[in-house]
Amino acid sequence: MVLSSVEIEEGFVIESHELDWQFSTSGGPGGQHANRSQTRAEIRWNIVASQAGTVEQRQRLIRLFGELVIIRVDRHRSQKRNRDEALIKLSTKIREGLNVQTSRKKTGPSRSAKRKRTDAKTRRGDLKRQRRRPSAED
User: Fold this and answer.
1) What is the per-residue pLDDT across 15-36, written as a single tens digit (0 to 9) for each?
2) Domain-wise residue ranges, the chain
3) For the purposes of burial, counting CB atoms within 10 Å of the CB of 44, is it exposed (0-12), middle (13-18) or buried (19 or more)?
4) CA dist., res. 127 & res. 119, Å (int)
């Protein structure tokens, strides 16, 4: 399988030559297949040496993840499935890193919320007034 590039989002594409793949034997159950087959997939992406996206986007990713992003997958018995899952994890991680959270703008309570609050206080006060002992005037 020759991969030409990985498109993370519009305008952010990682070329295949920027990705470094390594395969090794995965631990765990599986008997001789697990001991002899190199199914664990490890993908490395050097953000500093990359040309993907803008300089600002790469600087943001470096602040979040460091200069090197490493993803290891050994869930499946197949190298191809592990490789595909590693690419999905890499693209998800980068996409989340590029997503800039907007800060919350503080707002005051609305006019109807203020009215509901004062009406509830009035109703509660009336209820408490009804529970009092009647005065001599009543």
Assistant:
1) 888 888 888 887 766 667 666 7
2) 5-98
3) middle
4) 12
The vertex-93 CA angle with 91 and 97, nearest 5°, equals: 115
Token pair, residue 71, equals 């993803």
Amino acid at 129: R
- Any idea which residue has 């594409």 for tokens? 13
CB neighbours of 16 closer than 8 A, spacing ≥ 6? 2, 3, 4, 5, 6
C-beta separation of 5 from 15 below 8 A = yes
Task: State pTM to two decimals.
Answer: 0.65
Task: Please provide residue 40's backbone torsions phi and psi, each rounded to the nearest 5 degrees.
Answer: -70, 125
What is the CATH T-level fold of the domain 5-98, as seen in this structure?
A: Double Stranded RNA Binding Domain (3.30.160)
pLDDT in tens, 41-76: 899 988 888 888 788 888 888 888 888 889 988 888
